[in-house]
Design a protein that fits this description.
Layout (H helix, E strand, L loop, with lengths): L4 E9 L16 H14 L3 E10 L5 H11 L7 E12 L1 E3 L7 E4 L12 E3 H10 L2 E10 L16 H9 L9 E6 L9 E2 L4 E2 H10 L10 E3 H11 L8 E5 L5 E4 L35 H4 L2 H25 L7 H22 L1 H23 L9 H8 L2 H24 L1
Parallel strand pairs: 1-2, 1-3, 3-7, 7-8
Antiparallel strand pairs: 4-5, 5-6, 8-12, 9-10, 11-13
Helix pairs in contact: 1-5, 5-6, 8-9, 8-12, 9-10, 9-12, 10-11, 10-12
Length: about 425
């Protein structure tokens, strides 16, 4: 009889995040996925549970998850070949908006604009897998990176799934150590949820192969490599393409089912019907218990305020223009234009860093000429007056850029209003 392996596992599933700005990408079944995986670990006929920690929603804080991970994947020098350590995560994967290349798995208290706070870097997960004393270290990542809060239109992402797939190829362990990562999708894809299954599609298929025995061999055993092959086959024609990568020094059994009846030939699993990816963000449920303002998505808020904002902007500009030839109010108009131009430039940098910085390089000397012309800044200073006077000669370009920027901002507001 095969000796049961001791299992240590951390299972995380997060639908509801603390930061209200994450409500616009709320998941539906991440917590249910985590609970199902935890039951599978607990009930597996190949394991005896040594430690099983499950965190869902508000209990899945960074402190609790990270502390538990260090307990489950302790970097001891002794090598315990009869132990398997498992980490499962279902929730949001987030890219660092500043460094760009660093990926974080968002715990419940992750910050919208700074995933370093409340997020766990994938590089730390890799280190835990490698340094763990367990004979088998396993990570399952079902993260819908398309639901990350950072604006997908402005950043080219590499999902936790794809980054995990690439990095695992460089890992090396003991001769009989197994390191495995199961990832739900490729970098440019979404990991889907399904209302009929009441689960994420990837996790549901993984459980069918593992817990339900669809990936079993002739003896009824489900090996890690067989599970990877099963998932690859199931998603063969689907636009969601999971990635499984296993560095295996020996065969690891993760479930023992009854073998098929005598004379029954095992058949290869049929691929799922071809299906296009579905953006999880299109199936959002907003909790009714939150204040009314927080129940609205950013798009709904823009739609509710765009018309008043546009009307206010035109009214303010009209009032300002009427003061151009009325002293001393004309100085207020130029001060308003000066401030608005700075705001437009900073907004452009936020939208697109490269274009925004190039625009800023053009705007700064033009603003200096503007200040010289209308506010008399630098007048009488011999060292800079000629330069400022030269810049003031290009005020026509300043006004042209300002008009274009203001028109662009109005078009963006109108686009959000009508979309």
């Amino acid at each position: 009889m095969t000796q049961l392996m001791s299992v240590r596992a951390v299972v995380v599933g997060i639908d509801d995040y603390k930061d209200p700005r994450l409500l616009t990408r709320k998941l539906k079944y991440a917590a249910a996925d985590a609970q199902a995986v935890a039951r599978a670990v607990d009930q597996s006929t190949a394991f005896k549970v040594e430690k099983l920690a499950i965190f869902t929603n508000e209990t899945a804080t960074h402190l609790k998850v990270w502390h538990s991970l260090n307990e489950v994947f302790p970097p001891h020098l002794s090598f315990d070949s009869n132990t398997i350590a498992i980490f499962y995560f279902a929730g949001h994967g987030m890219k660092d908006p500043i460094e760009g290349e660093r990926i974080y798995l968002g715990c419940n208290d992750v910050e919208f604009a700074n995933p370093m706070k409340g997020g766990i870097p994938l590089s730390n997960i890799y280190s835990l897998l490698l340094q763990s004393s367990a004979g088998c270290s396993m990570a399952i990542i079902d993260a819908c990176f398309s639901g990350a809060i950072i604006d997908l239109k402005r950043i080219e992402h590499e999902s936790p799934a794809e980054l995990a797939r690439k990095e695992i190829g460089a890992l090396r362990g003991a001769d009989d150590k197994t390191v495995a990562i199961f990832a739900a999708c490729r970098s440019e894809q979404s990991a889907r949820e399904d209302d009929e299954r009441k689960h994420g599609i990837y996790t549901d298929e993984l459980l069918q192969g593992w817990r339900d025995g669809k990936a079993r061999d002739e003896e009824g055993k489900v090996h890690i490599l067989d599970l990877a092959a099963y998932l690859t086959r199931r998603f063969e024609y689907d636009e969601q393409t999971p990635r499984s990568n296993v560095l295996s020094g020996r065969s690891i059994i993760i479930w023992q089912h009854d073998p098929p009846a005598s004379g029954t030939a095992l058949t290869l699993p049929k691929p799922l019907p071809p299906s296009k990816l579905t953006d999880v963000g299109g199936r959002i449920i907003i909790p009714t218990a939150l204040p009314e303002e927080e129940q609205k998505s950013w798009r709904e808020i823009v739609k509710g305020r765009a018309i008043p904002l546009i009307c206010a902007a035109f009214a303010l500009l009209a009032c300002s223009l009427s003061t151009v030839f009325v002293e001393p109010l004309r100085i207020g108009f130029f001060a308003l234009v000066f401030g608005m131009d700075i705001i437009f430039t900073l907004t452009c940098i936020r939208v697109n860093r490269v274009i925004g910085l190039l625009l800023a390089l053009v705007q700064l000397p033009l603003l200096a000429g503007f200040a010289y012309q209308y506010f008399h800044w630098g007048v009488g200073i011999a060292s800079i007056t000629p330069v400022l006077a030269f810049m003031a000669g290009f005020l026509w370009l300043f006004w042209l850029l300002f008009a274009c920027e203001m028109l662009l901002m109005i078009l963006i507001l109108l686009d959000e209003l009508m979309s």
